[in-house]
Amino acid sequence: MDFAQKLQAVRKNRGLSQEDMAQRIGVSRQAVAKWEAGLAYPDIGNLIALSDLFKISLGRLLREESDTCATELIASAPYEYDKAVSFLCKAKKMTYAAHGTEEAPSRRGSHDLQYQDGEYLYLDTYLGGEKFAGEEAVWYRGAPIWAMNYAGRVLCEPFSGDFLKEALLRVPESHPYRGPMVYGNGEYRYHCTVNGGFEWFHGYEEIFYEKTKVYECRFHGGCLV
Fold this sequence. Notes:
Structural class: alpha+beta
Order of helices and strands: HHHHHHHEEEEHEEEE
Number of strands: 8
Strand content: 25-35%
């Protein structure tokens, strides 16, 4: 199996379209199509981006292998990317943002929320109140595959926890971290900025009441496999 064949097989195994893959590494869909047809070859920067995206070393990605070796490489992906993202967004909308019921605390004083669908499990656990810190994580078949740490604080009144939950209910699959890039209701405005992608990212969210910032939260995380 040569590079073009391997790239196409790995992409399909991860559940990505050519357009999805192109967007995540910052190239055009036409460029991906040429790579997979063997009509062009990615430069070193794009090869590194592909290696990071699929969690495959450059050596294994570039080296021609027997069908058996290539099949083992492709089959090593533990989950489908798009299904994991869809599950994560659904889990977020069913737990804290939806005033979900808390589980028994896993640590002294912690707030724990859990959601499970088939072989996927989500857990959000945090400490504190007006000043807080926590972690969200996803497991697939009992193995952790993604995690995000966050820490935030209420800066002043009139902060609204209900407005924050309202914003978090609108988490988009294109940015499955906290809330949408921009959301507003009445005098409240929610802003969220993210650098990086699902595999490795960091971001910042804030809430304004009129022109006053009343809340902020920083977060970072990524894929574990």
